[in-house]
Amino acid sequence: MERGKARKSLEKGKETEKEKIKDKRKEKEKEKAIKKESEEKIKGKEKEKGKSTGKEEKRKEQGKEAEKKKEQLKEEEEEKNNSVLTKPPTEPQEKNKQIIVLGLDGAGKTSVLYSLASNRVQHSMAPTKGLHAVCINIQDRQMEFLEIGGSEPFRSYWEMYLPKGLLLIFVVDSADHSRLPEAKKHLHQVIGTNPILPLIVFANKQDLEAAYHITDIHDALALSEVGNNRKMFLFGTQVTKNGSEIPSIMQDAKDLIAHLAADVQ
């Protein structure tokens, strides 16, 4: 009897132990399932993050491509508008007379020309190397403006082209005080070859704080000595905000150019 009770108690203990082991196994399996689910979620988030980063990079690449294309179109447009000869100018051929545009390098000749041509302010950063011809419609007439580079190697060609000019536009940087004596010297040298050629002086960059007033420019360039038989006009000009309308003073200058060119022709 006692043995039977002891056996039953032992079997019951074994079953309880088995239950505990079974429960522990279930607990471990549950932990494993939770861990696996957590890992899958993390992987899913990383995958989503990777996709998002990929999209962001793709957007950046597309932005760069668009910017590059925009820059390319801008360069093509500048090339279309600009007919610069990179080699030194040769002897001018006989052709219709042009309006000659001269001035030291950095005076803003090209920007002034572009602005006159489009009636909108257009800045040009690149210096003219050689010749730069622009056709501008003024008062239903097409006129050709010929700009000759203002750096030292090209100044020797100024006098070569001047006899073919209807009139001379001379551009100076009003804020570059140290170079005004140099501008004066070259201006008087070039106009000395033709005592009756009409002269228009653009005292450019008047928007700069250091710019001389046009009366100071008149004195600095000794414009009272250009000759009694010469028509001479002085305008204070500026090309400020890119794309804005040209100032009214530049429009007045355009009208005067057309009037003078018609008188000479």
Automatic annotation (TrEMBL):
It comes from Orycteropus afer afer. Keywords: GTP-binding, Magnesium, Metal-binding, Nucleotide-binding. Pfam families: Arf. This is ADP-ribosylation factor-like protein 9. The keyword Magnesium applies. It comes from the Eukaryota. The gene is ARL9. One of its GO terms (molecular function) is metal ion binding. InterPro entries: Arf-like_GTPase, P-loop_NTPase, Small_GTPase_ARF/SAR.
